[in-house]
Amino acid sequence: MVTDRPQTAASALESAAELLQGAGVVDARREAARLAEAAWSLDAGQARLHPDRVLGQAEADHLARLANRRAGGEPLAHVTGTIGFRHLLLAADGRALIPRPETEGLVALVLDRMGVGVVADVCTGSGCIALSLAQEGRYQRVIGVDSSREALAQARENGERAGLAIEWRLGDLIGPLRGESLDVLVANPPYLTDREYHMLEPAVRAWEPRVALESGKDGLDATRQLLREGHTVVKPGGWIALEVDCHRAADVAALAAGSGWIEPAVHMDLYDRARYVLARRSETS
Asked: Do residues 243 and 124 lie in contact, with contact meaning Cβ atoms separated by under 8 Å?
Protein backbone atom coordinates (compact mmCIF):
# COMPACT_ATOMS: atom_id res chain seq x y z
CA MET A 1 0.00 0.00 0.00
CA VAL A 2 1.81 3.13 -1.27
CA THR A 3 1.26 6.50 0.40
CA ASP A 4 3.84 8.75 -1.33
CA ARG A 5 1.33 11.45 -2.32
CA PRO A 6 -1.46 13.24 -0.41
CA GLN A 7 -4.53 11.13 0.11
CA THR A 8 -8.06 11.79 1.22
CA ALA A 9 -9.59 9.72 4.00
CA ALA A 10 -11.79 7.98 1.43
CA SER A 11 -8.94 7.03 -0.90
CA ALA A 12 -6.79 5.79 1.97
CA LEU A 13 -9.65 3.67 3.27
CA GLU A 14 -10.25 2.26 -0.21
CA SER A 15 -6.56 1.37 -0.60
CA ALA A 16 -6.53 -0.33 2.80
CA ALA A 17 -9.69 -2.28 1.98
CA GLU A 18 -8.26 -3.45 -1.35
CA LEU A 19 -5.09 -4.62 0.36
CA LEU A 20 -7.06 -6.56 2.98
CA GLN A 21 -9.39 -8.04 0.40
CA GLY A 22 -6.42 -9.21 -1.65
CA ALA A 23 -5.04 -10.91 1.46
CA GLY A 24 -8.30 -12.81 1.94
CA VAL A 25 -9.61 -10.81 4.89
CA VAL A 26 -13.36 -11.26 5.27
CA ASP A 27 -15.31 -7.99 5.52
CA ALA A 28 -12.28 -6.01 4.40
CA ARG A 29 -14.05 -2.65 4.29
CA ARG A 30 -15.27 -2.89 7.87
CA GLU A 31 -11.81 -3.89 9.06
CA ALA A 32 -10.20 -1.07 7.07
CA ALA A 33 -12.46 1.36 8.91
CA ARG A 34 -11.45 -0.16 12.25
CA LEU A 35 -7.80 0.23 11.34
CA ALA A 36 -8.35 3.84 10.32
CA GLU A 37 -10.04 4.61 13.62
CA ALA A 38 -7.01 3.21 15.43
CA ALA A 39 -4.51 5.00 13.16
CA TRP A 40 -6.29 8.36 13.32
CA SER A 41 -7.43 8.17 16.98
CA LEU A 42 -11.12 8.26 16.08
CA ASP A 43 -14.12 6.93 17.95
CA ALA A 44 -15.97 3.92 16.57
CA GLY A 45 -17.93 4.70 13.40
CA GLN A 46 -16.11 7.93 12.56
CA ALA A 47 -13.63 6.77 9.93
CA ARG A 48 -15.97 7.53 7.00
CA LEU A 49 -17.59 10.71 8.31
CA HIS A 50 -15.25 13.10 6.44
CA PRO A 51 -14.25 11.29 3.22
CA ASP A 52 -12.74 14.38 1.56
CA ARG A 53 -10.41 15.27 4.42
CA VAL A 54 -6.82 15.37 3.18
CA LEU A 55 -4.57 13.24 5.36
CA GLY A 56 -1.19 14.25 6.63
CA GLN A 57 1.64 11.96 5.58
CA ALA A 58 1.96 10.55 9.11
CA GLU A 59 -1.73 9.61 9.16
CA ALA A 60 -1.53 7.93 5.76
CA ASP A 61 1.61 6.05 6.70
CA HIS A 62 0.16 4.91 10.02
CA LEU A 63 -2.89 3.39 8.33
CA ALA A 64 -0.63 1.76 5.75
CA ARG A 65 1.47 0.12 8.45
CA LEU A 66 -1.59 -1.21 10.27
CA ALA A 67 -3.14 -2.49 7.04
CA ASN A 68 0.05 -4.32 6.12
CA ARG A 69 0.19 -5.97 9.54
CA ARG A 70 -3.40 -7.15 9.19
CA ALA A 71 -2.81 -8.34 5.63
CA GLY A 72 0.10 -10.37 6.99
CA GLY A 73 -2.27 -12.35 9.21
CA GLU A 74 -1.94 -10.56 12.55
CA PRO A 75 -5.30 -10.53 14.39
CA LEU A 76 -7.30 -7.33 14.06
CA ALA A 77 -7.41 -6.87 17.85
CA HIS A 78 -3.61 -7.00 18.04
CA VAL A 79 -3.21 -4.53 15.20
CA THR A 80 -5.64 -2.00 16.68
CA GLY A 81 -4.44 -2.80 20.20
CA THR A 82 -7.93 -3.05 21.68
CA ILE A 83 -11.00 -5.28 21.77
CA GLY A 84 -14.51 -4.59 23.02
CA PHE A 85 -15.99 -6.93 25.63
CA ARG A 86 -19.45 -6.20 27.05
CA HIS A 87 -19.08 -2.62 28.37
CA LEU A 88 -15.28 -2.63 28.41
CA LEU A 89 -12.53 -1.67 25.98
CA LEU A 90 -9.57 -3.94 26.70
CA ALA A 91 -5.95 -4.01 25.57
CA ALA A 92 -5.08 -6.89 23.22
CA ASP A 93 -1.47 -7.56 22.31
CA GLY A 94 -0.68 -11.28 22.44
CA ARG A 95 0.04 -11.67 26.14
CA ALA A 96 -3.38 -13.24 26.68
CA LEU A 97 -6.13 -14.85 24.63
CA ILE A 98 -8.25 -12.35 22.70
CA PRO A 99 -11.68 -12.22 24.43
CA ARG A 100 -14.40 -13.85 22.34
CA PRO A 101 -18.09 -12.88 22.16
CA GLU A 102 -19.05 -16.31 23.52
CA THR A 103 -17.38 -15.53 26.84
CA GLU A 104 -19.72 -12.58 27.34
CA GLY A 105 -22.48 -15.15 27.81
CA LEU A 106 -20.64 -16.75 30.72
CA VAL A 107 -20.55 -13.37 32.48
CA ALA A 108 -24.31 -12.97 31.97
CA LEU A 109 -25.04 -16.40 33.43
CA VAL A 110 -22.97 -15.67 36.54
CA LEU A 111 -24.57 -12.26 37.07
CA ASP A 112 -28.04 -13.80 36.77
CA ARG A 113 -27.32 -16.39 39.44
CA MET A 114 -25.02 -14.71 41.94
CA GLY A 115 -24.23 -11.03 41.51
CA VAL A 116 -23.01 -10.46 45.07
CA GLY A 117 -20.47 -11.92 47.49
CA VAL A 118 -16.96 -13.04 46.58
CA VAL A 119 -16.12 -14.25 43.06
CA ALA A 120 -12.88 -15.59 41.59
CA ASP A 121 -12.07 -15.77 37.89
CA VAL A 122 -9.49 -18.49 37.24
CA CYS A 123 -7.49 -18.42 33.98
CA THR A 124 -8.37 -14.74 33.86
CA GLY A 125 -6.16 -13.94 30.84
CA SER A 126 -6.95 -10.38 29.76
CA GLY A 127 -9.14 -10.03 32.84
CA CYS A 128 -12.29 -9.69 30.74
CA ILE A 129 -14.50 -11.84 32.98
CA ALA A 130 -13.24 -10.51 36.31
CA LEU A 131 -13.47 -6.90 35.15
CA SER A 132 -16.98 -7.30 33.71
CA LEU A 133 -18.19 -8.92 36.92
CA ALA A 134 -16.64 -6.12 38.98
CA GLN A 135 -18.21 -3.49 36.74
CA GLU A 136 -21.68 -4.99 36.46
CA GLY A 137 -22.12 -6.93 39.71
CA ARG A 138 -22.29 -5.91 43.35
CA TYR A 139 -19.49 -8.14 44.61
CA GLN A 140 -17.69 -7.56 47.87
CA ARG A 141 -14.46 -8.80 46.27
CA VAL A 142 -13.38 -9.95 42.80
CA ILE A 143 -10.23 -12.06 42.39
CA GLY A 144 -8.46 -12.78 39.10
CA VAL A 145 -6.01 -15.70 38.84
CA ASP A 146 -3.63 -16.69 36.06
CA SER A 147 -0.47 -18.79 35.79
CA SER A 148 1.04 -16.45 33.19
CA ARG A 149 2.87 -13.35 34.41
CA GLU A 150 2.40 -11.75 31.01
CA ALA A 151 -1.35 -12.33 30.97
CA LEU A 152 -1.71 -11.09 34.53
CA ALA A 153 0.22 -7.93 33.65
CA GLN A 154 -2.23 -7.29 30.81
CA ALA A 155 -5.19 -7.95 33.11
CA ARG A 156 -3.79 -5.51 35.66
CA GLU A 157 -3.35 -2.85 32.96
CA ASN A 158 -6.92 -3.42 31.80
CA GLY A 159 -8.12 -3.01 35.38
CA GLU A 160 -6.28 0.29 35.68
CA ARG A 161 -7.73 1.42 32.33
CA ALA A 162 -11.25 0.64 33.55
CA GLY A 163 -10.72 2.02 37.05
CA LEU A 164 -11.82 -1.26 38.65
CA ALA A 165 -10.30 -2.83 41.77
CA ILE A 166 -9.45 -6.52 41.32
CA GLU A 167 -7.25 -8.75 43.48
CA TRP A 168 -4.84 -10.17 40.90
CA ARG A 169 -3.03 -13.38 41.88
CA LEU A 170 -0.32 -15.32 40.07
CA GLY A 171 -0.54 -19.11 40.18
CA ASP A 172 -2.06 -22.24 38.74
CA LEU A 173 -5.82 -22.80 38.91
CA ILE A 174 -7.06 -23.23 42.50
CA GLY A 175 -3.67 -22.88 44.17
CA PRO A 176 -3.74 -19.08 44.71
CA LEU A 177 -7.25 -19.33 46.20
CA ARG A 178 -6.45 -21.58 49.16
CA GLY A 179 -8.26 -20.40 52.26
CA GLU A 180 -10.93 -18.47 50.36
CA SER A 181 -14.67 -18.99 50.73
CA LEU A 182 -16.15 -18.11 47.34
CA ASP A 183 -19.72 -17.56 46.29
CA VAL A 184 -18.74 -18.13 42.65
CA LEU A 185 -15.80 -19.78 40.95
CA VAL A 186 -15.81 -18.88 37.26
CA ALA A 187 -13.32 -19.95 34.61
CA ASN A 188 -12.73 -20.02 30.89
CA PRO A 189 -9.92 -22.58 31.05
CA PRO A 190 -7.97 -24.04 28.13
CA TYR A 191 -10.09 -26.84 26.66
CA LEU A 192 -8.63 -28.06 23.37
CA THR A 193 -6.76 -31.27 22.65
CA ASP A 194 -3.34 -31.21 21.00
CA ARG A 195 -4.91 -32.28 17.71
CA GLU A 196 -7.61 -29.59 17.92
CA TYR A 197 -4.98 -26.98 18.69
CA HIS A 198 -3.03 -27.84 15.57
CA MET A 199 -6.24 -27.64 13.52
CA LEU A 200 -6.87 -24.02 14.57
CA GLU A 201 -6.55 -21.31 11.96
CA PRO A 202 -2.95 -20.07 11.60
CA ALA A 203 -3.75 -16.61 12.97
CA VAL A 204 -4.73 -18.16 16.29
CA ARG A 205 -1.76 -20.54 16.55
CA ALA A 206 0.74 -17.91 15.47
CA TRP A 207 -0.46 -15.04 17.61
CA GLU A 208 -2.27 -16.33 20.72
CA PRO A 209 -0.75 -18.17 23.72
CA ARG A 210 -0.94 -21.94 23.44
CA VAL A 211 -1.15 -22.30 27.22
CA ALA A 212 -4.56 -20.57 27.11
CA LEU A 213 -5.93 -23.02 24.54
CA GLU A 214 -4.64 -26.58 25.01
CA SER A 215 -5.30 -28.83 27.99
CA GLY A 216 -4.13 -32.42 27.70
CA LYS A 217 -5.05 -35.43 25.60
CA ASP A 218 -8.79 -34.98 26.00
CA GLY A 219 -8.83 -31.21 26.45
CA LEU A 220 -10.17 -31.56 29.98
CA ASP A 221 -7.12 -31.49 32.24
CA ALA A 222 -7.72 -27.99 33.58
CA THR A 223 -11.50 -28.43 33.74
CA ARG A 224 -11.16 -31.71 35.60
CA GLN A 225 -8.84 -30.12 38.19
CA LEU A 226 -11.16 -27.16 38.68
CA LEU A 227 -14.10 -29.46 39.33
CA ARG A 228 -12.09 -31.71 41.63
CA GLU A 229 -10.52 -28.95 43.73
CA GLY A 230 -13.23 -26.30 43.51
CA HIS A 231 -14.99 -27.72 46.56
CA THR A 232 -12.09 -26.55 48.71
CA VAL A 233 -12.71 -22.87 47.93
CA VAL A 234 -16.43 -22.62 47.05
CA LYS A 235 -18.74 -22.29 50.05
CA PRO A 236 -21.77 -24.61 50.49
CA GLY A 237 -24.49 -23.47 48.10
CA GLY A 238 -21.97 -21.60 45.93
CA TRP A 239 -21.54 -21.89 42.19
CA ILE A 240 -18.96 -23.06 39.69
CA ALA A 241 -19.37 -21.68 36.16
CA LEU A 242 -17.21 -22.91 33.27
CA GLU A 243 -16.84 -22.16 29.59
CA VAL A 244 -16.25 -25.43 27.75
CA ASP A 245 -15.72 -26.87 24.29
CA CYS A 246 -19.13 -27.32 22.70
CA HIS A 247 -18.37 -30.95 21.81
CA ARG A 248 -17.56 -31.84 25.42
CA ALA A 249 -20.22 -29.95 27.36
CA ALA A 250 -22.11 -33.12 28.27
CA ASP A 251 -18.85 -34.74 29.39
CA VAL A 252 -18.09 -31.76 31.62
CA ALA A 253 -21.56 -31.89 33.16
CA ALA A 254 -21.03 -35.58 33.90
CA LEU A 255 -17.61 -34.80 35.42
CA ALA A 256 -19.22 -32.16 37.61
CA ALA A 257 -21.81 -34.61 38.88
CA GLY A 258 -19.10 -37.22 39.46
CA SER A 259 -17.05 -34.66 41.39
CA GLY A 260 -19.90 -33.99 43.82
CA TRP A 261 -21.40 -30.85 42.30
CA ILE A 262 -25.19 -30.75 42.22
CA GLU A 263 -27.62 -29.67 39.50
CA PRO A 264 -25.04 -29.44 36.71
CA ALA A 265 -26.60 -27.80 33.67
CA VAL A 266 -25.42 -27.12 30.13
CA HIS A 267 -26.22 -23.71 28.63
CA MET A 268 -26.05 -22.53 25.02
CA ASP A 269 -24.04 -19.63 23.65
CA LEU A 270 -25.16 -16.90 21.24
CA TYR A 271 -24.49 -19.28 18.31
CA ASP A 272 -26.75 -21.94 19.89
CA ARG A 273 -23.82 -24.18 20.81
CA ALA A 274 -23.41 -25.97 24.14
CA ARG A 275 -20.79 -23.67 25.66
CA TYR A 276 -21.21 -23.36 29.42
CA VAL A 277 -21.64 -25.69 32.38
CA LEU A 278 -22.90 -24.38 35.70
CA ALA A 279 -23.29 -26.36 38.92
CA ARG A 280 -23.59 -25.78 42.66
CA ARG A 281 -21.95 -27.10 45.76
CA SER A 282 -24.40 -28.82 48.07
CA GLU A 283 -25.59 -26.83 51.10
CA THR A 284 -24.71 -29.79 53.30
CA SER A 285 -21.32 -30.95 52.01
From this structure: no
